[in-house]
Fold this sequence. Notes:
The chain is of the alpha/beta class.
Amino acid sequence: MNEAERGANGNAEGLAVSFEFFPPKSDEQLPGLEKAAERLARFRPQFVSMTYGAGGSTRDRSFQAVRLIIEGTALPTAAHLTCVGQSREHVAEVVARFRDLGVSHFVALRGDSEGGLGEPYRPHPEGFQDTADLVAFLKEVPGTEVSVSGYPERHPQSADWAEDLDVLKRKIDAGADRAITQLFFDNDLFEAYLERVRAAGIAIPIVPGILPIHKFSAVQGFAGRCGATIPERIARRFEGLETDMDAHRRTAVEVAAEQVIGLRQLGVDFFHFYTLNKGELVEATLESLGLRAAEKQAA
Length: 299
């Protein structure tokens, strides 16, 4: 089944979703993650994913959060992995811990340079050279599913589209099963990206990453750091709404739903939602699209 490019229409028929969460920074925030995961699990996602922090307590919280979701929802859970600042031996230990939790799907990422996006990436002297190297390592274990990243507006450190697509192709050649895109808000950019990807001979599913705008000013800043642009036509719709959160929420749902409908008209029917550990906006967006949550099972 080609998850990202089957027939589409304006309702929820054939619509598939996945959700991304991040590990809470404190134990006090764990109930919020648990609530969001349980809330969104009722939409029967293909999988959920958990981001990963390579260092110390952040890494341990990734394991804790993955266990929480697997035990609380029984959903297929993908664990993010990064190359930056880690030896192969260390990553192998991390992978083994995730596998012990029941994880067989990984989201393989290079990770930002330790000095930030403005600094060139330098592989760990005993680590993986790049994401393709990590993908190949993960695929050594039969039955392992691997997702990687894609960039509709080009990765900020890619010199040009030829370099960007070459990086993606090497990840695919190493065995990646799908690419999940960086967040974007202009469907024309995704359409152009998909055309470039297919012209380069890359046939795996390209799953669009959707971020409902929970707070425009925050998302604007975050998108800018990621190299993603927000079209002026969307920015205008949020003008004056920072103090009217009900109107802001309605607009956010409308914008996200319109983006999904537009992408479905391009033949896309698999969507990866960046939840920011908040279930309400994603839930409202899916319901507005006609995707109904299953009733909660009685205890």
